[in-house]
Amino acid sequence: MATSGFTNTHRLFLQAAISKRLMTEATALDLYSQDNFSDFVGQLNEGLNSVELEFRRAQDEVSGAFVMALFDAIVMADDEAFCISSTAALHEAGKLKNKENKPLALSKKDAESLLDRFVKDQWLIRSAAGAYSLSMRSLLELQTYLKETYDDQIQECTLCMEIVTKGQRCVVAACSCRLHNHCAGTYFGNMNKPVCPTCSSAWTGRTLIGLSDRTAAPSTVRRRRRRREDGGAEVGEDGGQDENGGDEEEDA
């Protein structure tokens, strides 16, 4: 990282920004608490340029709401698919609302442009079959947000304890074991009869998390149900209880 003009003030501000991931302009100004904030950010980005990072300011409520809606649909995808189709992604764009719960106008063309931008900026990955999933950048930079927001819905690899959205899972539905493909390959490499590291059931490697790059995602948004914090019955996103304990399906 370039050090010319890069002071301890820049370093402290950068540490705070990294810990928060995202912050409002008011929070950023409180952290800096001096004049010439634009010049300060310019110096900060000069120092970050050598490691291909940038401190950005954004005012686009629509794109922010859209990417959060996409993240929610991907993380909550039924049967741990951790991806959604382009049709389902565009359907999410049509449901966007602002903080006042009023609809946000986003045309299909604008939604498609934003999807292209999210892929270009490496927040999302688009598979050969047109399915959108979380990128490595999202999993690394938004790890704290994802774990805090989705808690028991997000999955961690039993071996390396990092988030896993593509990999293998135990054939026993009640078992919590999830593995990255590379972790599974290393762990089971010398076993003639692989068994689950958690429950010791036979491990086939054919029960998957996520979809293969050439498998199309469902055209409808189908979410897993969230559980109440008190451990009660499962509830849907609208707070309504599902009499059968099943999944909620929304037409795309």
Automatic annotation (TrEMBL):
Q: Which GO terms describe its molecular function?
A: ubiquitin protein ligase activity; zinc ion binding
Specify the superkingdom.
Answer: Eukaryota
Listed under GO cellular component are: nucleus; Smc5-Smc6 complex
Q: Which UniProt keywords apply?
A: DNA damage, DNA recombination, DNA repair, Metal-binding, Nucleus, Transferase, Ubl conjugation pathway, Zinc, Zinc-finger
Q: Which GO terms describe its biological process?
A: double-strand break repair via homologous recombination
Q: List each copy of the RING-type domain by range.
A: 157-200
InterPro entries, per database record: Nse1 (IPR011513), Nse1_RING_C4HC3-type (IPR014857), WH-like_DNA-bd_sf (IPR036388), Znf_RING (IPR001841), Znf_RING/FYVE/PHD (IPR013083)
Report biased composition (Acidic residues) as residue ranges.
Answer: 235-252
UniProt-annotated location(s): Nucleus
Q: Which reaction does it catalyse?
A: S-ubiquitinyl-[E2 ubiquitin-conjugating enzyme]-L-cysteine + [acceptor protein]-L-lysine = [E2 ubiquitin-conjugating enzyme]-L-cysteine + N(6)-ubiquitinyl-[acceptor protein]-L-lysine
Write the Enzyme Commission number(s) for this entry: 2.3.2.27
Subunit comment for this entry? Answer: Component of the Smc5-Smc6 complex.
Family from the record: Belongs to the NSE1 family.
Function noted in UniProt: Acts in a DNA repair pathway for removal of UV-induced DNA damage that is distinct from classical nucleotide excision repair and in repair of ionizing radiation damage. Functions in homologous recombination repair of DNA double strand breaks and in recovery of stalled replication forks.
Q: Which PANTHER family match?
A: NON-SMC ELEMENT 1-RELATED, NON-STRUCTURAL MAINTENANCE OF CHROMOSOMES ELEMENT 1 HOMOLOG
| Name of the protein in its database record | Non-structural maintenance of chromosomes element 1 homolog
